[in-house]
């Protein structure tokens, strides 16, 4: 079945540092890939998505590129801010799947001033 | 404003006392789903519904029930809660038929079963 593997957390960075959160996936077909973010006390919000190979999703300075050859969708940001502190979830959705989303385990990011 | 509303946000209760967590969406979405979030496990799907009167089990359905009598509402029922159901629960909704459509999440319900 489908699965998503994220790098273990928590991750602690200083403000303005470079961020990478690794995500790899296993899927039988051609999934769409997502990054969701969960700020403290809130539900998940869509951060960015990519729907086919080599697509790059971007939002709020975050980027991720759909790499079919390495089945990866790593999240990157060039300069993190304290306000980026949150839990980040990688997820996939397979066309024709009634289950919709399969999530990774989440990565807690803390950015220190 | 498009939103998914869950109630209550927090609940502490005791083993065996039936409880219902409500979920309502105002986006006319066909698809609704319940997840539980536990440390190190991410979000696991409990039940989902593709339309009114159509529900199906997710990954961890044991101990839960759902119903979908109206398109906007998808309550989660714990008939006889147990401590292992202590968790953070999220309801979500989306359009159906397109895998690239995001899900919209409620703000969560934190349940503690003593």
Structure description:
The complex is a heterodimer of chains A (113) and B (114). In chain A, strands 2, 5, 6, 10, 11 and 12 form a six-stranded mixed beta sheet that branches. In chain A, strands 3-9-8-7 form a four-stranded antiparallel beta sheet, with no helix packed on it. Chain A has a two-stranded antiparallel sheet with strand order 1-4. Helices cover 0% and strands 50% of the residues of chain A. The mean pLDDT of chain A is 92. Chain A contains no helices and twelve strands. Chain A starts with a strand and ends with a strand. By secondary structure, chain B is an all-beta fold. Chain B has strands at 4-7, 10-13, 19-25, 31-38, 42-51, 54-57, 65-66, 76-78, 87-94, 104-105, 109-113. The model of chain B has no long low-confidence stretch (mean pLDDT 93). Chain A binds chain B through residues 6, 31-32, 34, 41-46, 49, 51, 89, 93-101, 103-106, and chain B through 4, 31, 33, 35, 37, 40-45, 48, 50, 56, 58, 90, 92, 94, 99-100, 102-103, 105-108.
